[in-house]
Design goal:
Pfam families: Peptidase_C13. The protein is an alpha/beta fold. The chain has one domain. Helices cover about 20% and strands about 35% of the residues. It contains two helices and eight strands; from the N terminus they run ββββαββββα. The strands form three sheets. Strands 1-5-6 form a three-stranded parallel sheet, with no helix packed on it. The protein has a three-stranded antiparallel sheet with strand order 2-3-4. A two-stranded antiparallel sheet has the order 7-8. The longest helix is centred in the first third of the chain and has 13 residues. The radius of gyration is 15 Å and the shape is globular.
Length: about 110
C-alpha cells in the first residue's frame, strides 16, 4: 500500500553483490529491480533495511536515489566481512550473534 512503512532485517551470509539464503541467493541486480518496481508502483512510503552479512554494503552502492525513501544500514561496506561475537567456548563456537546486530539490539535497550 502507498502508506506502508517496511522494515527488512536480514542476518546470514553475503558476498560482493549478493545475499545468500540457505537454498538461494539475492543479487544486487534483483534487489535493485524489485526496489525500482515497488517505488514506481507505490508499494510503500518508506523502507528501511538492516543487513547483517559480509560485504552487505555492496547491495546498496550506487542503486538508491533520494526520492525512493529507502534507507539501508549494513554490517559491513562492500569490501569488508562482518564478524561474529558472543562466542562461548575454547573453539569460539558457537557464536551467538554478530557484532552489528548485537550492538544495535543491546544499545536499543538503553
Amino acid at each position: 500500500k502507498p502508506n506502508d512503512r517496511i522494515f527488512v532485517y536480514f542476518s546470514d551470509h553475503g558476498d560482493v553483490g549478493m545475499l545468500i539464503f540457505p537454498k538461494d541467493l539475492l543479487t544486487v541486480k534483483q534487489l535493485n529491480e524489485t526496489l525500482n518496481w515497488m517505488h514506481q508502483n507505490d508499494r510503500y512510503s518508506q523502507m528501511v533495511f538492516y543487513i547483517e552479512a559480509c560485504y552487505s554494503g555492496s547491495m546498496f552502492e550506487n542503486i538508491l536515489t533520494n526520492d525512493m525513501n529507502v534507507y539501508a544500514v549494513t554490517a559491513a561496506n562492500g569490501k569488508q566481512p562482518s564478524y561474529a561475537t558472543h562466542c562461548t567456548n575454547g573453539m569460539r563456537l558457537p557464536c551467538l550473534g554478530d557484532e552489528f546486530t548485537a550492538s544495535w539490539t543491546e544499545d536499543s535497550d538503553e
